[in-house]
Amino acid sequence: MNYRITVLPGDGVGPEVMAEGMKVLEAVAKKFGHTFKLEYELIGAVAIDKTDFALPEETLKMCKKSDAVMLAAVGDPRYDDPKLPVHPEDGLLALRKGLGLFANIRPVKVFDELVNASTLKAEVLKGTDFIFVRELTGGVYFAKPKKEWLTTKGRKATDSMTYSEQEIERIVRVGFELARSRKKRLVSVDKANVLKSSRLWRQVAIEVSKDYPDVALSHVLVDACAMQLIRTPTAFDVIVTENLFGDILTDESAQLAGSMGMLPSASLAGIPQSGKPTFGLFEPIHGSAPSIAGKDIANPIATILTVAMMLRYSLALEKEAASVEKAVEVVLKQGYRTDDIMADGNTRVGTRQMGDLIAAEV
Ligand SMILES: NC(=O)c1ccc[n+]([C@@H]2O[C@H](COP(=O)([O-])OP(=O)(O)OC[C@H]3O[C@@H](n4cnc5c(N)ncnc54)[C@H](O)[C@@H]3O)[C@@H](O)[C@H]2O)c1
Ligand SMILES: CC(C)[C@H](C(=O)O)[C@@H](O)C(=O)O
Ligand SMILES: [Mg+2]
């Protein structure tokens, strides 16, 4: 089959890890007889440099015409100054919003081979395999108003957390559907002991649960969740939460998997259904990691696993997705590691070599 993919390498380590992701996609094309037509576009700091916009119109248009979109990372210290009118991250937020991608699926799987790569104890980590469902187009990220102003007593700024019941319902449903296809346990994370928006979140989650009597719903406060994630990560199956909580808790969870360079994600416009394509943007959860950019040391596995998620969710190519995931596992079993996940007895490889090794196993 022929597929059209928009590729957004972005900034920092983005182009390096994306090159390895595309290498692996090419191996999939060869093995399974597909054609992936790749259209490279700008986003983030590289887009601001060339066009003054973090998300040029051309990029959004191309994404809308594609079967799926791959993005590596945005962000550049040159644009960190809060006084600047535009930041690279604005491009990613505008893309998620512009494509209606409200459901961000972030699987957290600890490979047996990597239980010694984390700062946490191997016996705590072994068997960890859960999925975060992060709401992606609401909450404080898209607050209205979102502004800074001057008062007689000094400066003030606001971004308030607002959620409508419709926004909560659609993301909670994604959580229930995923839980139904797994161990049938859904944890809804909120801060209902303090926040009004969380109280509504909890009420709606309970209302939606009536449609899923086969799934056990429980509620955990976000601070307690942060603690439980590192105490007993194996207790979780599917976790659904709002945008900012999900952002924070998934970086924490990356450390369970050994590194930020290990976690993939899918940002979808609907509930994923087995065998049916759901349009999406596929992005590792990590950022542009500027301090390691250009050194051939970034871990490309998050991006390669993200390619697998794209094959599964947007192209409905399950066999192909599984072969990429298997290839990652095989190479980890052989003991090859990038810097971030090195342990005693492993063989250190660079970004490109890791990509070569995985592509060869597809
Ligand atoms: N989705 C995205 O595009 C995205 C996500 C997070 C942060 N950012 C942006 O990236 C920039 C840097 O942010 P940050 O430092 O907070 O987060 P980061 O994820 O870029 O880096 C956090 C830590 O993880 C390491 N790391 C990240 N990716 C890695 C990889 N593939 N292999 C090995 N190590 C890796 C980094 O070296 C650093 O130590 C900022 O501009 C931020 O806004 C973008
Ligand atoms: C870069 C930033 C806008 C983004 C987010 O906060 O969603 C990132 O941290 C992520 O997790 O994808
Ligand atoms: Mg983040």
TrEMBL record:
Binds 1 Mg(2+) or Mn(2+) ion per subunit. SMART domains: Iso_dh. One of its GO terms (molecular function) is 3-isopropylmalate dehydrogenase activity. It catalyses: (2R,3S)-3-isopropylmalate + NAD(+) = 4-methyl-2-oxopentanoate + CO2 + NADH. SUPFAM superfamilies: Isocitrate/Isopropylmalate dehydrogenase-like (SSF53659). Its cofactor is Mg(2+); Mn(2+). One of its GO terms (biological process) is L-leucine biosynthetic process. Pfam families: Iso_dh. Pathway: Amino-acid biosynthesis; L-leucine biosynthesis; L-leucine from 3-methyl-2-oxobutanoate: step 3/4. It comes from the Bacteria. GO terms for cellular component: cytosol. The record marks Y141, K191 as: Important for catalysis. Its EC number is 1.1.1.85. It is found in: Cytoplasm. Keywords: Amino-acid biosynthesis, Branched-chain amino acid biosynthesis, Cytoplasm, Leucine biosynthesis, Magnesium, Manganese, Metal-binding, NAD, Oxidoreductase. Substrate binds at R96, R106, R134, D223. Mg(2+) binds at D223, D247, D251. Catalyzes the oxidation of 3-carboxy-2-hydroxy-4-methylpentanoate (3-isopropylmalate) to 3-carboxy-4-methyl-2-oxopentanoate. The product decarboxylates to 4-methyl-2 oxopentanoate. PANTHER family: 3-ISOPROPYLMALATE DEHYDROGENASE. NCBIfam families: leuB. Belongs to the isocitrate and isopropylmalate dehydrogenases family. LeuB type 1 subfamily. Homodimer. This is 3-isopropylmalate dehydrogenase. It comes from Dehalogenimonas formicexedens. The lineage of its organism: Bacteria, Bacillati, Chloroflexota, Dehalococcoidia, Dehalococcoidales.
